[in-house]
């Protein structure tokens, strides 16, 4: 499962989406799938567990680890001047990171 963000018009926003895209695609497959199914596709934990064929607790674990890793990578990408990816992205009513 690969994530590809649409390019916005503002240059800083493009950099943020590029950083987010890279960070998501560098996650282990299980974590990436959980983050995308729940954060982007807005599935419930139960729906994601069914799609992935694992218990709900496993999905919760993958999601938690994936979000923590994304947060770490995005904060690291900000650099010393504060440029870089935002630490959260809202998809509908779901907090993504």
Can you walk through the features of this model?
There is one protein chain. The protein has a single domain, classed as Winged helix-like DNA-binding domain superfamily/Winged helix DNA-binding domain (Arc Repressor Mutant, subunit A). By secondary structure, the chain is mainly alpha-helical. Strand 1 and strand 2 form a beta hairpin. Helix 1 (11-26) crosses helix 4, helix 2 (29-40) packs across helix 4 and helix 3 crosses helix 4. Strands 1-2 form a two-stranded antiparallel sheet. The two termini are 18 Å apart. The chain has helices at 11-26, 29-40, 45-52, 56-77; strands at residues 90-91, 94-95.
How many DSSP H or I helices? 4
Instruction: Output the radius of gyration.
Output: 14 Å
% residues in beta strands? under 5%
At CATH level 2, the architecture is Orthogonal Bundle
Which segments are poorly predicted (pLDDT under 50) over 5 or more consecutive residues? 90-95
The CATH topology name reads Arc Repressor Mutant, subunit A
Structural class: mainly alpha
For the record, the CATH class is Mainly Alpha
* Assigned CATH superfamily: Winged helix-like DNA-binding domain superfamily/Winged helix DNA-binding domain
Largest sheet: 2 strands, antiparallel
- The helix/strand series, from N terminus to C terminus, equals HHHHEE
Intertermini distance: 18 Å
Strand order in the sheet with the most strands: 1-2
Number of domains: 1
Helix content: 55-70%
Compute the average pLDDT.
80
Strand segment tally = 2
């Amino acid at each position: 499962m690969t994530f590809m963000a649409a390019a916005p018009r503002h240059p800083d926003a493009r950099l943020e989406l590029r950083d987010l895209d890279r960070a998501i695609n560098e996650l282990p497959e299980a974590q990436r799938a959980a983050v995308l199914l729940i954060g982007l596709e807005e599935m419930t934990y139960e729906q994601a567990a069914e799609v992935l064929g694992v218990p709900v607790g496993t999905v919760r674990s993958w999601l938690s680890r994936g979000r923590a890793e994304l947060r770490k990578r995005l904060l690291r990408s900000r650099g010393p001047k504060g440029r870089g990816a935002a630490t959260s992205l809202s998809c509908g009513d779901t907090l993504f990171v």
